[in-house]
């Protein structure tokens, strides 16, 4: 079976990984893209304690499946850039504060300047339903950054960079990340664009994924804590 899996083309591998990792988000993201009014009239916010726990369980299961598949295909932690070090953990904090957060603030200011109504939309958008529990926030802030950075950044960029070049790799990675967050509406998309571009560019240039996992974990935890009140 291992030899048969190894014989599959790189394109087949890429399609399978993306379908398994992100296929479940396609219906929700397409609905948000085609019918944006549904985001305004939805009955309840998408982020709840139950939703966070479901996300953790789903991502752990998918990571287990894809870990076995990619190992059979010859992928290693080094190829994905997963080399945890104290230095890269500090770099991750720097990326979160100095690059991603700064770029996010600048982008929001630019969007508000061009589209003043965005400020009203941001205030009226409620992504979190009720008070979130710390165990749920901590669990998703540990699991989701690993899941997302490994597959949407590390794997996609590494796989496409080898065959299609760095520009295509960055654009595809950023596009997938933004698409998967359409369910958060305009506010969520504006927030995710800087991360999508900066993270993909960083990994394409350095091959180091751990700083991005740290920066993503900080963003998830602080963002959830602030929105939950």
Helices, strands, pairings?
Blueprint: H1 2-6, H2 10-22, H3 26-34, H4 37-40, H5 49-72, H6 86-114, H7 117-124, H8 134-164, H9 166-180, H10 185-206, H11 210-227
Helix pairs in contact: 2-8, 5-8, 6-10, 6-11, 8-9, 8-10, 8-11, 9-10
Quick recap:
The protein is an all-alpha fold and 229 residues long. Helices cover 78% and strands 0% of the residues.
Description:
The chain is mostly helical. It has one domain (2-227). It has helices spanning 2-6, 10-22, 26-34, 37-40, 49-72, 86-114, 117-124, 134-164, 166-180, 185-206, 210-227. Helix 2 (10-22) packs antiparallel against helix 8 (134-164), helix 8 (134-164) runs antiparallel to helix 9 (166-180) and helix 9 (166-180) packs antiparallel against helix 10. The longest helix is centred in the middle third of the chain and has 31 residues, at 134-164. The relative contact order is 0.16. The mean pLDDT is 91.
Top keywords for this entry?
mainly alpha; 229 residues
Mean of pLDDT: 91
Radius of gyration: 18 Å
Shape designation? globular
Proportion in β-strands: under 5%
How many domain regions? 1
Number of strands: 0
Distance between the termini: 50 Å
